[in-house]
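pinging the channel bc i need a second pair of eyes. not urgent but kinda urgent?? the chain im working w is below, pasted from the shared doc
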Amino acid sequence: MRTRTPDERLEGKRRAAPSTLVIFGANGDLTRRKLLPALYRLAAERRLPAGFAVLGNSRTPLSDEQFRERMREAVARYLEDADFDARLWEEFSRALFYLPGDLRDASLYERLAARLEEIDRTCRTAGNVLFYLSTAPGLYPEVVTRLASSGLHTGPGWRRIVIEKPFGRDLADARELSRLLYRAFPEEAIFRIDHYLGKETVQNILAFRFANGIFEPLWNRRYIDHVQITAAESIGVEGRGAFYQEVGALRDMIQNHLLQVMATVAMEPPAAFEPEAVRDERAKLLRSIRILKEHEVDSCAVAGQYASARIGGEDVPGFRQEPGVDPESQTETYAALALLVENWRWAGVPFYLRTGKRLPRRVTDIAIQFHAAPHALFGGVGIAEPMRPNLLVLRIQPEEGISLRFLAKLPGSGMKLRPVSMDFNYGASFGLRAPTAYQTLLLDAMAGDPTLYTRQDMVEACWAVVQPILEAWARRRFDFPNYAAGTWGPPEAEALLARRGHRWRSP
């Protein structure tokens, strides 16, 4: 694997080698909504390597031209905050190809090998191939096994593979998936993608902490009271009820996205800004999270499921009324955890994680609550929130930025205090459109830079955290639904914080 030099990494000078990106499941939602728009933007910014090509695969019979037309429609539709340039598309689409076939059919991989050789000759991709599994997770073992048995996992150039979450359904399943992957690819060629780690604000946590002398000294138990990480969605399951019923909020969001964000917030400073140094520290933090005992699950974890409600003059169905969902479903659409980190920096500081469907608004943020001043000099006069004067909020979506709240004197006679905020907004400050997470992560995979990707030991550490909760919830029958659509979750979630002297902030 080629690792970029420090100058290239720090300055953002991507020098990805020529390559072919093979997308398994190229007719699916992820390819149309995220992958192709991200590649188009990279092409618009002239950041794709010379000799780049895309080879899509799905069972749908399509010619190259039909595939290009479908992708053209998708890019024009899902290209957010950017204009579609027909001339640029014409140039970009010449490197789009398609190979129909069933992933369970051995002959597909013979045809795939022949097509890759042909593309290599015409597009000069140097024999480098990046396989992207944009398929149902149940097909991962089949594809990986077939790639290995057909010899496609090796070649004249490098071979890498990108897999989407979930990385297994539980700890044992994650280890079995890892065993299969290692039969075909070494760890440095496996890119487990978590698009949250590609978001600008999540990446900016590293810069915010380690490039500013005023914040890192405060980043510990002496100054921070607790941390809240919220990933809220206002929508329901959007026609994916059958899929979501098998996954649930804990597996879908907390096991991967939110624990990785927590690790980035709480990790120790790496020795250098190098891929393995950064990933080592994230892994260490994840292994430091206290694993809940069976008798602690009820007091440290809350499950919820949304009920029907009337929102904005419209009737919104509950989860059990969604198409494809069991009317007696026990799947959680909301999950909240109270976690502790057993290390010197964070001893005794609770980290609260919550995620849910059909909450009041779409928002993902990290709220870092500092301790109150040790002496209430002003006696609380005029302070709207005397117990929580200082708050740092890192906003991940929908509008990326950072906000610092502190107390200031209200103009006029007397000492009246009010909370005020200093705000940083990416768009307003830099005047640039931030790259999408998939732009960043696709380019990293082509450059062989795994900094923002998840390593197997990190995957297992995340599963170890949620495993006892999954097992406890599987043995329990919940009185679902327990929160109305359009609210901030079940009352048990408020009690989760209240018993620790805290309360959820309203984003």
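so The chain is about 35% helix and 20% strand. and The first strand starts at residue 19 and ends at 24. — does that match what u expected or am i reading it wrong
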